[in-house]
Amino acid sequence: MMSAILYYCVVYPLSLLPLWILYRLSDVLFLLFISIIPYRKKVVQGNIQKSFSDLSEKDQAVMVRGFYRHFSDLLIESIKNLSISKAELLRRMQVINPEVLKTIEKNGKSVLFVSGHFNNWEWFITSQAMLVPFESYGIGMPLSNGFWDKKLTERRQRFGLNVVNAKNYKELFLQNKPVSVLVLSDQAPADGRKSYWMDFLHQPSPVLFGVEQMANEFDLTVVYFTMKKIKRGQYSVEFNILTEEPKGLPYGALTEKHVQLLEESIIEQPCNWLWSHKRWKREIPADLESLKAAQKSKFEEKYR
User: C-alpha distances in angstroms, 230 versus 65, 120, 233, 272?
Assistant: First the structure.
């Protein structure tokens, strides 16, 4: 009941305001985050310190402020996303190499789009079906709050996207038609022993292996998309075909590549990643090297 009141009486009406007004609210949020309400500040500071240990404390503090500046805008843009029109959304999302999408369409194979929680991924999710070829799907886990899960799913789907529970992803690729599927793969895995371990932002990191597994199981074209913030409310999107033949790649190559591209994006615009996420909460397995060898052997036995 309270969720419905908050949505219909506060959040959705706010989304109807023009962005230039909403950004004034973002300015207030920013001041609150860096003073009165230090949202996950220790997590943000710790993540930045470990990832950019070569920077001085002063430069790290500047990056922390930059994160909260972007994070405030991101919250406001996510509210606006609830009611933003198709025309305005497309105007704010500039695809700089649409020819890549034409290549994908000619290929005729199902496509896996992969990226991370960088810049405004919510706007890409909502605009996906308008930007990319084939019927579009997004894979995710439902929110714990049923009302908000239903409302956010409705809003994400209104321009053609279909949201699918991660547990049912196989059904997408068993259809007799090509589909485009989106995954964001930079969150902390639930189990460090079932993850692919590699260096990411100068520290050993467990990485979700689903992209490589899905690509090999269903012979998918894999495309990494990079979002860059041009200015407030304006983003560019660039597509990078990682492989059209995943089974021709050695074990781990695809995972290494899409994580490396995310790292490069973060280094270029370091304030615009979701630093408030507890990304490095999994312990490094004591038997990491033998675990890696066993994972590689199992993968090659199944897919090679």
Answer: 19, 11, 8, 12
Number of domains in the chain: 1
Q: Domain residues for 208?
A: 2-280+288-303
Which tens digits make up the pLDDT trace of 112-130? 999 999 999 999 999 999 9
Helix, strand or coil, per DSSP, at residue 85: coil
Q: Under a CB-based contact definition with an 8 Å cutoff, are residues 67 and 275 in contact?
A: yes
Element (H, E) at 198: strand 196-199
Q: Is the pLDDT of residue 143 over 90?
A: no
Q: What is the pLDDT of residues 236-265, one digit of tens each?
A: 999 999 999 999 999 999 999 999 999 999
pTM for the model? 0.94
Element (H, E) at 5: helix 2-6
Angle between helices 288-303 and 210-218 (to 10 degrees): 20
CB neighbours of 248 closer than 8 A, spacing ≥ 6? none
Neighbouring CB atoms inside 10 A of 183's CB total 21
pLDDT at 176: 83
Residue 134 has pLDDT above 90, yes or no: no
For residue 225, give Cα distances in angstroms to 1, 190, 239, 242, 250. 38, 24, 5, 10, 22
Closest alpha carbon to 271 in 42, 67, 49: 67
Residue 119 — φ and ψ, nearest 5°?
A: 55, -140
Q: How many CA atoms lie within 13 A of 101 on its CB side?
A: 18
Nearest alpha carbon to residue 190 among 278, 114, 273, 266: 278
